[in-house]
Protein 1
Amino acid sequence: MNFNNRKPIYVQIAEYFLDNIISEKYIFGDRIMSVRELAIQLGVNPNTVMRAYAYLQDKDIIFNKRGIGYFIAENALKNAIEIKYNEFTKEELPGIFNTMEILGITIEDLKKLYKNHKTNQNENK
Amino acid sequence: MNFNNRKPIYVQIAEYFLDNIISEKYIFGDRIMSVRELAIQLGVNPNTVMRAYAYLQDKDIIFNKRGIGYFIAENALKNAIEIKYNEFTKEELPGIFNTMEILGITIEDLKKLYKNHKTNQNENK
Amino acid sequence: MNFNNRKPIYVQIAEYFLDNIISEKYIFGDRIMSVRELAIQLGVNPNTVMRAYAYLQDKDIIFNKRGIGYFIAENALKNAIEIKYNEFTKEELPGIFNTMEILGITIEDLKKLYKNHKTNQNENK
Amino acid sequence: MNFNNRKPIYVQIAEYFLDNIISEKYIFGDRIMSVRELAIQLGVNPNTVMRAYAYLQDKDIIFNKRGIGYFIAENALKNAIEIKYNEFTKEELPGIFNTMEILGITIEDLKKLYKNHKTNQNENK
DNA sequence: GTGGTCTAGACCACC
DNA sequence: GTGGTCTAGACCACA
């Protein structure tokens, strides 16, 4: 995983799980890596992973069996979608729409930018 | 001006000028408020305003006449648009498009969300 | 490090890093002193160091790992040379050449002055 | 006269006189513009001109006849050369030589840069 | 009056 | 521990 500097690392870790739960790579009951393991794999301080897990646990995305590990919760999929969707529409979109108006970018323009985005993505594969 | 907590104040001050330059409320040659003046008006420390002005000067949006004050630079409009546009397409859009794919949101869905956004905006007026 | 009064301290700190990157005393990946550490060592306020670091980061000379510290960036050498060279040829040389013409100093004269300079340097060692 | 922002305006005004005295456009006994006149012509605060004149008077480059005006002093040429030369060799050159060493620029390189400089100058005429 | 630099010290988020 | 932002207040050069 490559971290960018615009968001806290622990947030990026949490998002990684949210995304993979939504795309159902992780499903109810799956055990996820231990804090220590993941920290080593990511080259990151265990506290940072811990913080991501604490966040996910708080949101009912994962749960903890003491002494055993962390597991995907029953409502993980539903909750993950809800979190992501709310964040998207309430936190991100207003700013985006605002900027679009200031710059005079229309939804049609956005469509073109989206196509470019997809093209670039495929090229980098 | 109301500050939100998600971004540093000095960034929000700089953005205020960028936005108003793009909408041509400020044009080439206009003098902007002195550091002290604006600081008092915003209820903020002069250093904080200074930081915003230093950023804008570095980006060729404003320039300084010694002992007199800050003025909108000749290429302010061009540069402001460039900064805002790059910020938008390079920093914000990729994340947005990513989230849209994960959540299965299409450009058509976005259009609807945009209409809602506009409606809410008008209601709050 | 001894500061002179002709330039702001934060500029002199930044130049110290530029020079040492160019002479390859600092290379890609090296961690530099933390803001606080360097501030104490130089007997200077952390804000002043911070300002130098912010400048260097903006110019892609150093980068930050969150919560860990600042490191020499990959293109630090290239960028540092470019900055220094541009500063030299665009800002300093024109004035120098102008003064030389007014005073009737030739490049040959300069060569002699350079030799004196080197001699004095060695005597002071 | 176009001012640049790297030096105080009053210094640039003083330098204008020094240069023109050295090139003997102004000679002993010439009356120079009054403070007010020059201030208006330059679009500058009279205090700023006053400061330049005070500096020049202090260095025995000009003198004042009360109620009449400022005049070029007898030893203006000699003094102007001395000031300019000292400043050049003591203040400017050491820094230049230093930078040259850091960047690995030789006197031969400088010769080429000087030729470019002259070429550009002629093109702009 | 203008900006520019600096200090001292606080508080916060993050690792 | 790390950086980042902000305040309060000082001092200075310059116009």
Note: The radius of gyration of chain A is 17 Å.
Protein 2
Amino acid sequence: MKKKGSLNKSNSRSTLAVKHAHDYIKEKVIDFIIPPGEHINEVELAEALGMSRAPIREALNQLYIGGFVTFQSGKGFFCRKFSAKDVADLLELRADLESAAISHIGNKEARPDILAIYSTWKEVATKHREMNMDELVNADEDFHVKLAALAGNEERVKILRNINERVRFIRKIALEKEPRRSNFIGEHLKICEALMQQDQAELIKLLDYHIGINSSQLKPIIHEGLARIYAEEIL
Amino acid sequence: MKKKGSLNKSNSRSTLAVKHAHDYIKEKVIDFIIPPGEHINEVELAEALGMSRAPIREALNQLYIGGFVTFQSGKGFFCRKFSAKDVADLLELRADLESAAISHIGNKEARPDILAIYSTWKEVATKHREMNMDELVNADEDFHVKLAALAGNEERVKILRNINERVRFIRKIALEKEPRRSNFIGEHLKICEALMQQDQAELIKLLDYHIGINSSQLKPIIHEGLARIYAEEIL
DNA sequence: TTATGATATTTTGTCGACAGAGCATTATAA
DNA sequence: TTATAATGCTCTGTCGACAAAATATCATAA
């Protein structure tokens, strides 16, 4: 079925076609609605979004640098795919950046932003039972990003956001498999408390454990994740 | 089987226009041949490179995500510009990532890659007097990237390469101002030695000092750099 | 059958064109 | 004079088109 682009009602010029394409494709890649390694057909996308190939290609070039798609000269763009090591590398990086961030938070006294994080998460703690997995992952990412943002390094936050998007599918699985959801909820609260009490040593300890740098259950989660993505393909 | 061996000059098409434009524009931005904040004229670039605007725009979209140019809807692309804090943030990030890298280098025994870095730098040490500033900065970046690469996390290396490119103009000034060039040359050698001797504590100490996280002379260098870039403009 | 070659189809990479937004300049009014 | 409106020019954002490369399809030979 083909649809004509003439049906664009209330065509909001405020949202550029490139941006729309970017967000649309990124979402498909993040959730692996486009399977890993699969070729991305520009014409197909252009028709689906009711635009020409030009903005599609511009968006794909953005996603290429962002690590969401790969590129082969003459063949075009493909959904990113990764090995267990690739995922582990991204998770390691994320842990390193967050660790660095908390070590760079300066004076922690009387900071409304810390309090805001705390109270937001306390709300999550009370109603996490009514939240679905997507909402939970979203809240979790938000917590960690805001934590890192306390250090005030916007560039680091940007990178962390990018990594979060790229490993989101793994984080979803990690949360699903979390035996007792209240564990990680409580850990976030403890992190906030250590922050407010300015207990740096405790803070580092808590975060290291929470992010699970040396967590032995990380490997099986990654493999579970890859198994799902790649279906019956052998890694 | 191979096809008939015809001298295919068409193979010189191997360098895509997009990639050419990307490298060309990036170079101008890195060296601030395009002044910070200046609007980038697509038609001008297209004519200068003998191509149409399409590949130019694709390249610009890549550079946008890479942090080399900014974008304003309806106005186009502009050379990146930054404040003293922006530079400091990038340098902080770079330091954090390198620190994290060396803490993740596993077994350091009998590693040819470590020896290779050492011997390469020893060569630099002997002939650094005949090297110009660009060569020196290049060698320095190379050293640090290879150091970080020892940890085996390709994604981190990618980010470090990106940051190096973005702060290169500052690093050039830092090197110019280095009172005794042999200082930093010697520090690299010491870092290698600490690596080979597996003296982790010493290694961290050396690197922290070398990268100058808390170096008080960092601030004046940044300001000197920005002053040059922005010429008489006030920051 | 499998391999090879010719042919048809798809898809990329790039081009030139154009409407409209943005910007500069001139003309007009206060 | 200064401020505002009109005018024309520049440049962006997107489109449709096309050649060449890549891929799929089919035919033929071993």
Note: The CA atoms of residues 133 and 172 of chain A lie 7 Å apart.
Protein 3
Amino acid sequence: MGRPPCCDKTGVKKGPWTPEEDIILVSYIQQHGPGNWRAVPTNTGLLRCSKSCRLRWTNYLRPGIKRGNFTEQEEKMIIHLQALLGNRWAAIASYLPQRTDNDIKNYWNTHLKKKLKKLEEGHQGNFREGGHNQSASYPTSRGQWERRLQTDIHMAKQALVDALHPEQPNCLSQLKSYTKPGQTSAYASSTENIAKLLKGWMRDSSSKPACANSDATQFSFSNMAPGTESASSSEGTEQNQVNNSDCMELSEGGFDESVLFGFDSFESSNSDFSQSVSPEASLFQDHESKSDQHNEQVPLSLLEKWLFDEGATTQGKDFLRDLTLDDNANFF
DNA sequence: AAGTGGTCCAACCGCCAATCC
DNA sequence: TGGATTGGCGGTTGGACCACT
């Protein structure tokens, strides 16, 4: 009856992953693609639970993950999606495909919660200083509450529109926002060893015939390439922060990483990566890419559709309907 | 230099719906 | 059909790191 256990509870290694384990996992996924996690520990010999392998892949090794500081736009988007969706980090992450739900959750818990709390306290403090006893957040009468809600919705609407329609920054400006001067990415430093270990192996793999799911598997190293870069140069911490698919021109390496890792096709193809994010996000991405092509932006309708389909709260529906009717008209 | 407290984040834990056999 | 298991998710933890005393 049922399936065999995914892994023995005994003899399962826990704790931080070593570069060697990463290499084993990534090379396995390169050959077989992500999925069937149950088979991963047994087929690779990794002393890890299948769940641990999946988490390591999705949160760290998966291609297309952007490391480093969150941009202002991402921050805004998280704040307002969190307001709309609650702590549904996976759903929120589907709108930020380069970020993992874990990253977003961590960022929310460590940065944004405090930030919003401070703002709220500051807001309340101002009210108290001004002689108001009521909480700014919770006006007592229904009329006040409704006015407050309308104001909040309007503000949220505006900020979400801002977040969804950033002035597309170029790579260098993104680069600046990802990394403070002198800051070293923990990811980069931790993957540096992986990169060193991978360096020779990847060159070999580039000459191997592509396997059936080569799209996905070549991508597997897209987020490792910066480590490779840093391994071969004395600095390059800023480069480590940059999403390679966005900023290939930053590559100064001796070989063409875009060819080696298949960056060119990464964003636009029907890769495993795009399939691995939610259908909504894929739609979203698809429209974003189309928007880029036509220099116009349409993602709001998709956000709206998704929330409607998800059975979002009536408030959310009203908000989005309002958003679509009002601000889209203004915006486009 | 050592101790302390705060911050950050990778990884684990537990729950649950979906899937398998 | 139903129990076992997987895969996905959100919450939480533990340790590394840093600033300050």
Note: The first helix of chain A runs from residue 19 to 32.
